Amino acid sequence: MSLLHKLAPWSRKAVLTLSALRQLSASSSVAKVRGPPAGCSACPTRRRIFLGSPDPLVACAARHYSEDLPPLQREVRIKKLEGDDSGIAEVRMSRQRARNALGKVFITQMFEVVDTLRQDSQVRAVVFHSEVRGVFCAGADLKERAQMSNTEAEHFVHRLRSLMSEIAALPMPTIAAIDGFALGGGLELALACDLRTAAASAKMGLIETTRGLLPGAGGSQRLPRTVGMGVAKELIFTGRQVDGEQALALGLVNRAVPQNQAGDAGYREALSLAREIIPQGPVAVRMAKEAINRGAEVDVATGMAIEGMCYARVIPTRDRQEGMAAFIQKRAPRYTGE
């Protein structure tokens, strides 16, 4: 019997305390396991959840723990908007005491959220934003990291890199709303999104070199693709932080606005941007994202072929027919995503 199951014979209502979870994460026996616990009927294998994790039992435990929490006590959760904003989903980050630091439970819950969004065809745009005032995401949880061996830390960063890749691969447009600090892994999370809005007073930077590290969750690859090689090297080599206005000038964010009294100007601007996206044909927008992302990694000729493949997938849709009909009839189109 595994250490995990000695602690708790799982049922759907099983509860694992955070102290027990920390004991699991520190256990060398857990780190040796490469799959979900055998016979755990409450935890079917889900490759995306365990991808890149050196301690899938801990990931499993964290998932069971997080599923038992009331929604408002979760560190990461989804809120689907309604009414005129139907089609917009918010990923709300609320790890209050740790400033949304990227800890094990936070990452596990973010994997769950991304997995849910990927399968939801009704979501047309996603806004990632913080419910912790003054911070988007402070980066790595250094207290947790200090308890890891070198091997455990390497595997943990691999899992974090996999999470950012999963966010980047979401089929619908994603927007990071930066209203405070987005440092290290926090900026890497924002870079994994398609678009970024920021308050002018926000602070962001890949500060890993100031800690004797380098960006390890995609930052060294996504930042140059966003702001250009020279600017990216300068920001990474120096560990410099920039504010929202500077980030806009560099092309790091799409929009920067003055902060308001509520401290959520970046979020409000992200909602405004999402509202410009959701009236458009959802299949067309998703295919446009795929064409852009896949085309950016290849030569122009191959990119043209990718564009043609994506275009061909839009032609037979009802949305395309609706778009043409609405144009002819001089009315707003009513897209259904079909």
TrEMBL record:
UniProt key word Lyase: yes
The keyword Lyase is annotated on this UniProt entry: yes
Any one Pfam family match given in the protein's UniProt record, by short name: ECH_1
Designated gene of the protein: Echdc2
UniProt keyword terms in alphabetical order: Lyase
Family, similarity comment: Belongs to the enoyl-CoA hydratase/isomerase family.
Protein's name according to its UniProt entry: ECHD2 protein
Domain of life: Eukaryota
